[in-house]
Amino acid sequence: ALELTNKFPGSTLPDALDPVNTTNPDGSQGTDLYIQQDKFRHQFAADVPRDEAALAAAGQRPVAQSALEEKA
Hints:
By secondary structure, the chain is of the alpha+beta class.
C-alpha cells in the first residue's frame, strides 16, 4: 500500500507519517506509523469538525509499517 503513495504525484501522506520504532511480542524490531497530529485532519478527517479531528488525532492507533509493505 505504501508504494501507491509514490505512484501518484502530489501525495502528501509520506510527509505526514511519524515512524516509531517498536519491539514486537516475539522480540523482533518493527516500526509503527502515526499520522502527525497537526496533519491528521487534512490526511484523514477533513470532513469532520476541527475539535473532533483533534480528538481522533490524539487517540489514533498506529499501523505497522510491515502491514503496508506486504504484497497483496
